[in-house]
Amino acid sequence: MAVVLADFLVREERGYYCRYGDFYIDALAPVETNVISHAHGDHATNGHGRMYATAATFAFMRNKYAKIPEISMLKQDFGFPFRLGEVELTLFPAGHILGSAQILMIFRGVRYLYTGDYKLQEDATCEPLQIVPAEVLITESTFADPATKHPDFREEILKLKDRPSNIMLGCYTLGKAQRLTALINQYLPEREVLVHHKMHPIHKLYELFGRTALRYSLYNRKAMKEGATNKIYLVPPLTFNSYFKAKNVLKAFASGWERLQKQNDIELYISDHVDWDDLLSFIAKVEPTEIWTIHGDGRALQKHFAQQMVVRDLLKAECFRHCS
């Protein structure tokens, strides 16, 4: 009978480390071998000897880190296994942003599934999440709270309809901005999308990978001030916060976090993470025997599954060093 190894993946200062394959996942500091789930800055960093990720993830990283050596980027297609040490790894779509991947690791007959960030909600701009059965589910727990339920994104985007003003819409540059553009194009075709100059190259990369056509223009002050008041200007968080005194626009910020809705003119709960119900639905389909939590608070999950299975935070490497 295959045995789950408690130290198969552990938390170190530099990232999540698998000693059985001698590699890291989503390392935050330079390491020799790093497997990257997706291109957001809290998961994808530069300076590693070898990196494994999808082509889209590397494209976004090259946009941010122009001098990444080509030889260090080992592109992996979804569904095709590769080996690191004694571990077989395969990337599967996570549905979070374009190119985002779950990482399935198989070692001595046990399947360990690292989700990275993921969502179940429909999103035309990225690959839909794929269900992958595993004995051990290593899941993000960003919104692992029974009180958290993300509303229907269609109803949320329609909050911007028939507003007698231009709208400044704060959002993250990679992933969220492109999803919002697609949603506005589909549900608010009368609205013109303007994007901040930092978002523009990411939109171009999304077009290059061809998931869906996006209609938008690069922001300029003249376009925002002249003509019909049907503009929605997408801006990154720092720009959004710096325009807190902006006049003649309505302000909204697209996020699952309640704290980011305060003092805005419109509340817009659109998240790229699973809420509590989607998390439970995902777990039921993966059918794990153990759950290890990362990126958030796993206590609600521990309580929910207390009589059914082991649920715990991913263990720190120090625990094994001191106890062995």
TrEMBL record:
InterPro entries: MBL, RibonucZ/Hydroxyglut_hydro
Signal peptide (residue range): none
Origin: domain of life: Bacteria
PANTHER family (UniProt xref): BLL1145 PROTEIN, CLEAVAGE AND POLYADENYLATION SPECIFICITY FACTOR FAMILY MEMBER
UniProt protein name: MBL fold metallo-hydrolase RNA specificity domain-containing protein
